[in-house]
């Protein structure tokens, strides 16, 4: 067989062999025109938390409306992938999920902070995710039961206060303890914020950490009946709903303190955000970002938000979100070292 014919034969055989292994289908899918890339396909939104919580609610709501705004109107489904505070889902989307635009993720708003602090199990680079857009910022607060002697954050600097602790509730109050001198005493063993709030209501503890959105939507009677005092909000600045409650950043006494507190507060700016794996083709990224932006303005989506009275504050586009995450993950080694100390971890 002449050399040229033999070369063509080998190329053809390799192409057929690759197709039989499924490589041909992936290649042909990526080669499709962008406008047709999603037609007849299923897009899966992996939610890094169990059903029933805030992340699950927003994820399913976004999944319900997003498909109408993607060319070809693919089916969009939400799938829970809980574990390790959503780190399992983050690792999956980063390394395993298909990079063709059909896999999306909704994970912890502390995604960059967990990476910087070297949280065990983290195997992703937050700035390398393809960020699609943020639905809303998400500010957490510490609240104290009305019978507690601690009624302000400044009281918490003068006396011990028992706090229902879970993964999130352990981090932010610990940071305040180590940076500004609050005296939160962690009562551990509560699996989530709902159980922590119930423990506070039963008198097992005096305080708890939860999102401001959860308070507004599920515990409005506590506000109406003045059963709680809101001690601090864990964001870069005060939100309009809480003009009299200090943000964690303003409690810092020095520029260095404020810098470290700002590192932790940046998670509120990441908020409820959708991302995709690294390496998604640019034209598909643009399709998904455009569809997300359209969803945030969709009258049906907005009607669902209004009907449920949930937080919906300043949606931002994927390009802006990409920068927020990169800035949060790109802190100096000095800030990282001080953040580790604030978190109560040894330098690594």
Overview features:
14 helices; three-stranded antiparallel β-sheet; D-Maltodextrin-Binding Protein, domain 2; three-stranded parallel β-sheet; 348 residues; disordered N terminus; 11 strands; alpha/beta; 2 domains
Strand order of the largest sheet: 2-1-3
- Total domains: 2
> What are the segments in which pLDDT stays under 50 over at least 5 consecutive residues?
1-28
Can you summarize the main beta sheet? Answer: 3 strands, parallel
What is the terminal-to-terminal distance? 62 Å
- Do you know the CATH topology of the largest domain? D-Maltodextrin-Binding Protein, domain 2
Q: Which CATH C-level class of the largest domain is it? A: Alpha Beta
The percentage helix is: 40-55%
Number of strands: 11
Compact overview of the structure:
This protein has 348 residues and is α/β, with parallel strands linked by helices.
Protein described:
Strands 2-1-3 form a 3-stranded parallel β-sheet, sandwiched between helices. It is of the alpha/beta class and 348 residues long. The protein contains 14 helices and 11 strands. Strand 6, helix 6 (167-180) and strand 7 form a beta-alpha-beta unit. The protein has 2 domains: 38-137 and 271-343, 3-Layer(aba) Sandwich (D-Maltodextrin-Binding Protein, domain 2), CATH 3.40.190; 140-264, Periplasmic binding protein-like II (D-Maltodextrin-Binding Protein, domain 2). It has helices spanning 3-20, 23-31, 54-66, 87-95, 111-116, 167-180, 193-202, 212-218, 220-224, 255-270, 282-296, 299-308, 318-329, 333-343; strands at residues 42-47, 75-80, 103-106, 130-136, 140-145, 161-164, 184-187, 207-211, 228-234, 272-276, 316-317. The termini are far apart. Helix 6 (167-180) crosses helix 14 (333-343), helix 10 runs antiparallel to helix 13 and helix 10 (255-270) crosses helix 14.
């Amino acid at each position: 067989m002449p050399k040229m014919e033999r070369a063509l034969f080998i190329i053809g055989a390799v192409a057929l062999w690759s197709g039989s292994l499924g490589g041909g289908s992936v290649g042909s899918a990526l080669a499709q025109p962008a406008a047709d890339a999603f037609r007849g396909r299923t897009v899966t939104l992996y939610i890094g938390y169990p059903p029933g919580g805030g992340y699950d609610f927003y994820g399913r709501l976004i999944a319900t409306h997003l498909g109408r705004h993607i060319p070809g109107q693919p089916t969009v489904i939400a799938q829970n992938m809980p574990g390790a505070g959503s780190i399992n889902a983050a690792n999956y989307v980063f390394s395993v999920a298909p990079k063709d635009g059909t896999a999306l993720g909704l994970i912890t708003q502390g995604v960059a902070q967990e990476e910087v602090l070297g949280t065990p199990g983290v195997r992703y680079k937050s700035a390398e995710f393809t960020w699609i857009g943020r639905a809303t910022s998400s500010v957490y607060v510490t609240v104290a039961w009305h019978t507690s002697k601690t009624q302000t954050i400044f009281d918490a600097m003068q006396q011990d206060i028992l706090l229902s602790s879970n993964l999130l509730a352990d981090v932010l109050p610990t940071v305040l303890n180590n940076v500004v001198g609050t005296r939160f005493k962690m009562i551990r063993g509560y699996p989530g914020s709902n159980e922590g709030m119930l423990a506070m209501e039963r008198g097992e503890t005096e305080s708890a950490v939860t999102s401001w959105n959860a308070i507004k939507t599920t515990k409005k009677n506590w506000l109406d009946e003045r059963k709680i005092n809101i001690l601090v909000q864990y964001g870069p600045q005060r939100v309009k709903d809480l003009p009299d409650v200090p943000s964690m950043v303003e409690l810092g006494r020095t520029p260095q303190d404020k810098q470290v507190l700002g590192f932790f507060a940046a998670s509120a700016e990441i908020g409820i955000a959708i991302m995709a794996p690294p390496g998604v083709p640019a034209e598909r990224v643009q399709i998904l970002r455009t569809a997300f932006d359209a969803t945030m303005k969709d009258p049906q989506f907005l009607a669902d938000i209004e009907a449920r009275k949930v937080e919906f504050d300043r949606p931002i586009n994927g390009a802006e979100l990409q920068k927020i995450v990169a800035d949060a993950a790109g802190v100096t080694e000095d800030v990282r070292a001080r953040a580790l100390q604030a978190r109560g971890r040894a330098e690594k």
